[in-house]
Amino acid sequence: MLYSPENFDLLKIFLEQTPQAIAMVDRQMRYLFASRQWLRDCGFDDRDGNPHSPDSQAVESILGRSHYEILPQFISTQPTIQNPEEAGVRDSAISLESWKEVQAVCLAGGVQSWEEEFGADGDRQSRVKWDVHPWKTQTGEIGGLLLLRETTGRTPGKGDPLNPLTAKVGSNSHRRSRSDESDLRRQSQILVELARSKTQNEGNLEAAIAEITEAAANTLAVERVGVWLYDNNQTEITCINLYERTERLHSSGSLLLTAPYPQYFQSLETERAISVDHAITDPRTRDLADTYLIPLGITSKLDAPIRIGGKIVGIVCCEHRGISRRWKLGERNFAASIADYTALALETHDRIKTQTELESANDQLQAVLDAVPGSISWFSSDLVYLGVNGYLAKTFNANPETFLGKKIGFLQGSPKFNHLVPEFFDNPAKEAQHEIEMSVRGVNRHFLVVSHKYQQGQAAVFIGFDITDRKAAEAALQKANEELESRVAERTKDLTEAIDQLQEEIRTRSLLEETRDVLEFSINNAADSVFWLTPDGRFFYVNDAACITLNYSRKELLSLSVHDINPDLPAEVWAEYWEEIKEFGSVRLECHHRSKDNQSFPVEITINYFQIKGKEYNCIFARDITETKRVETELQRAKATAEAANLAKSAFFANMSHELRTPLTTIISYSDLLQEDAKELGVSNRAFFGDLQQINKAGKDLLVAIDDILDYSKIELGRMQLDVECFEIGEAIAIIMAEIEHKLITNKNTLTMGGDAEWGTICSDRHKLHQVLWHLLDNASKFTENGAIALEITRENTPDFRVLNAASKFHKPELEATEEWAVFRVRDNGIGMTPEQIQELFEPFSQMHTSDTHHATGTGLGLAVSRSLCQLMGGDLFVESHLGVGSTFTVYLPANLPLSALNTEAIKQKLTPKFPRPLPLDHDNSWTEGEGWVFDDE
Fold it and tell me: Which chain positions lie within coiled-coil regions (predicted)?
């Protein structure tokens, strides 16, 4: 396999802590790293006998030296090659050339494994197993070999004349059990996995620490593993991640003060890891017993300090519950390695955070440079563009990326700049400043170029400021100076004239002061109160009328503010009022003033905003309107009396209409009977029949007028009720057509039907809908001669209620959610109306005045009643008309009003449609196929 360590720092920690003998060499077989076990087996442990601390001088003597120099004994021994064909090595004494051959195979991507036996004079006493693997650099190239060594068989003791490798093996008195070996391999495997983990290298500290604590808890089989970090002063320590193995739960946030536990934290300062078998009684952790160990049931602890740059920044705590536990050497080493991995995760997080902040700072710097109004460019010493700012790129109408990597001179029109850059690099000076002339988009421009070297002179930045305008200004200034002397005489003359003007201003100022005195006299003698205010509401001028009205002296009043005399303008709202007055310039309102004796009276005030010499003021004119308010109160009482009289009038109309209906009905009935009797008696006098028909028609017209008056009176009195039922629109329209037919024939008009193919059912008041449509068709027939009338019926979504509600007297908010509406439009091409006539069209008792006297106008209640009925049914009536063109009346009604309780059974009987689509009506009232109703006089 190919080892590709993504984080060499993690790999280094692993090599230092793994119990296996591993060494890492570069392509020339020079040592880069070696595990502690490798160093111990090679005899480089501490000279005092401590097997855990290899001598630093010996380690340094190994690093950088060739593998052939460190282990020369392997050059002359007899190897047993497991893969001779792959390695290309035959059964012969291995030599330096053979080692190089194995090295070449591995660097080509192969893997080598073999065993060798060692002993003096052919006496085989020990066996060494080799595994050689290639590893890759971060760029993907093979960077060297990874050597894994394992020694088996009987080994000689100290003093055996073998090489240091086998001598050390023979002197090692420590023997691990199979369980220990398994634990060590498991620990090594976990460390390798952590070293390879992408989480540890991505800078996500929370995820990395969680992965470390979980891996440590599962590997050591402890209940709790936590990572704690000191604050800056090391006065307290906070848990940033605690993993509980049984619950598989991560948490954080616990905090401990360091002062109560000096022995525990002092122990961490002096040891690489402290292993406490009996945590409650051990002197190092005894202080933690009552507040931490006993409440949490912790019996044994294995803690390792986290060091960064030689300073302890935190602790990895491995905590055991239950029977006290004796910690093994490998476990202590593993805990120390976990602490090192944690330190590396913290450093990685800080490094990535710093890198991110640096990139952000670079972006900000680039944004700042792009905003600088000057051309900025960076060059390496070999005259290659390293970058430019946006201003320079825009100046030359190019993209900043096009400059990167280009050699100076690729731009046209800058030969002087192309010479200036190399000359500056050749010059030992660190800074320089020059003026040059360049051609930019065909125009010669002058630039001031400031240059500065950095990176020990290997790069430089050049900043060019366009000084063309400045040069032109300098030339203009020079010209002005030349002309200055010639203009001195003229200026002297101007000065004389200015003195004359000044004297005139003095006279004008004197007149203004006189005018001011007159104005002040006028204001003081004005009938209205006048107050001048500053923005904080304080008075700085009041007139005599204000003092008299409020019963204050002028001195007293000037010591007050507007809030003291006007309770309607308190201090907390004054700032908002001031801004409104400032915005509108002048504001008029009614409020109250309070006099010195605490008497309140109504006033009408006009507030005007103005500025004088940059200062803001308000001028208030106040007029006592006590008498005006009294008159308004009397007028309101009179209005209430008039409204009561109007309601009495409506009630009178309603009662009178009822009284008139009875005799009028009798007249109409007798006129009908007389016509029938005359036919039976054979009376042939046309004039007699005409008179009877006129009596009958006049009675019916009068009955309609009385009905309109009665309906309008009911609406005004609030007594009009809805009788809602569901019915077929086509059925209702057929009845109306039968009644309106003779009116169409009278004025020789035709009626056509249009709209949707099927009109369907509507739930509304049948009678009132009939009344509205009859009035609209009657009006269209009345004001149209030899013309065309159209009735269109459609189903539509909710209309625009902003328009619909503008004049809706009977608006019901709950109907705004109605989704389906029935719309009836009556169009005609009659005489039409003017805008003035439209304004009065729906007013009661208003009659349309026309030049044609034969157009009957009626009582003027028909349209007023129709609109009121539409509004009562939740809709409205609108009109569009143009004089001489015609009119269109549109009725909007909800298609499904709530049903009346008394009509439930009747509605159920009428739900079956009788007219699936509108059918035409012939002159003889029979139904035939066609496109709509058409009436004419033939």
Answer: 470-505
pLDDT one-digit tens code per residue, 893-911 = 998 887 753 343 433 343 3
Write down the H helix ranges in 441-561. Answer: 468-484, 488-524, 544-550, 554-558
pLDDT digits (tens, 9 = 90+) for 167-213: 333 333 334 456 677 888 888 888 888 877 777 777 788 998 999 99
Domains 370-466 and 721-909 share a fold: no
The token duo for 624 is 């006592």
pLDDT tier for residue 231 given thresholds of 50, 70 and 90:
very high
pLDDT digits (tens, 9 = 90+) for 696-742: 777 777 777 777 776 777 777 677 888 899 999 999 999 998 888 88
The CATH fold assigned to 721-909 is: Heat Shock Protein 90 (3.30.565)
Q: For residues 213 and 306, give the distance between their C-alpha atoms in angstroms, rounded to a whole number.
A: 13
Predicted pLDDT of residue 113: 74
pLDDT of residue 934: 36
Give dist(CA 305, CA 307) in Å, integer: 6
Residue 457's nearest CA partner among 485, 478, 437, 432 is 432
Tokens of 413: 């029109």
Please state, in angstroms and as integers, the Cα–Cα distance from residue 869 to each residue in 172, 732, 790, 815, 860, following that order: 113, 17, 22, 15, 15
Provide the 10 A C-beta neighbour count for residue 679: 11
Q: Which amino acid is at 933?
A: W
CB-hemisphere CA count at 13 Å for 674?
15
Q: Say whether pTM exceeds 0.90.
A: no
| Contacting residues for 759 by C-beta, under 8 A, at least 6 apart | 728, 729, 730, 733, 793, 795, 822, 915, 917, 918
Of the CATH numbers 3.90.380.10, 3.30.1300.10, 3.10.450.50, 3.30.450.40, which one belongs to the domain with range 189-351? 3.30.450.40
Do β-strands 311-321 and 224-230 pair in parallel, antiparallel, or remain unpaired? antiparallel
DSSP state of 812: -
The pLDDT, as a whole number, for residue 817 is 63
| Angle made by CA atoms 706, 709, 710, in degrees to the nearest 5 | 85
Residue 384 β-bridge partners: 407
User: What's the CATH superfamily of 370-466?
Assistant: PAS domain (3.30.450.20)
Could you tell me the pLDDT band of residue 468, with boundaries at 50, 70 and 90? confident
Of residues 774, 703, 702, the one with CA closest to residue 742: 774
Place of tokens 């991640």: 241
- Computed over every residue of the chain, the mean pLDDT equals 77
Query: Quick one: CA torsion of 37, 43, 49, 51, rounded to 10 degrees?
Result: 0
Mean pLDDT, residues 215-220: 92
**Residue ranges of the domains in the chain?**
8-173, 189-351, 370-466, 475-521, 525-624, 721-909
Tokens for 839, please give them. Answer: 């304004």
Q: Which of 931, 792, 784, 804 is nearest to 867 (CA)?
A: 804
Helix (H) or strand (E) holding 890: strand 886-894
pLDDT band at 644 (very low <50, low <70, confident <90, very high): confident
| Percent of residues, the chain, with pLDDT higher than 90 | 19
Residue 615's DSSP bridge partners are: 612
The string of pLDDT tens digits covering residues 848-867 is 655 554 554 555 678 888 88
Judged by phi (left if over 0) then psi (alpha if -120 to 50, else beta), residue 387 lies in: left
- What's 96-156 look like in SS3? HHHHHHHHHHHHCCCCEEEEEEECHHHCCCEEEEEEEEEEECCCCCEEEEEEEEEEECCCC
Domain 8-173 has CATH 3.40.50.1390: no
Tokens of 841: 């069209």
User: Residue 320: is its pLDDT beyond 90?
Assistant: yes
Q: Strand 529-533 to strand 539-542: parallel, antiparallel, or no bridges (unpaired)? A: antiparallel
CA–chain centroid gap for 233, Å, is 40
Q: Is 525-624 assigned to CATH 3.30.450.20?
A: yes
